[in-house]
Amino acid sequence: MEIRSQFLAILLAFIAFQAYSSSALISSETLTPPSPKAITDLKDAIVKGLGLQSDLKVSGFDVRDALVGKAVAYEFVIEIGKKMIPVKLLEDVSRWDFVDLPFFHRMNGGNEAKEGNSLAKMGKKKDAIDLPELPPFQLAGPMELWIQDGDDMRLAIPHDVEAGKLKKVVLSDGAVVTVKGARSVSLRHPIELPLPFNRSVMGQPHLATGLLSLAQALREAYKSNSEKPLLSLRIVGPSSLTSSPSTSPNDRLQLKRLAPGLVKLSSRAPLPSPDSDNESQPATMWPMTSINGSNSNLRGFEELLASVLGEKGQEEGSFRLVEAQVSAQTYVKMGFEIEKKLLEGEANWDKYPEWRTRPQKSRAHFEVLARVEEGGKIVPERIVPVQPFEVKESVAASVATGNVSMTKVETVHTAPDYFTL
Question: Mean pLDDT, to the nearest integer, of 302-328?
Answer without folding.
Answer: 89
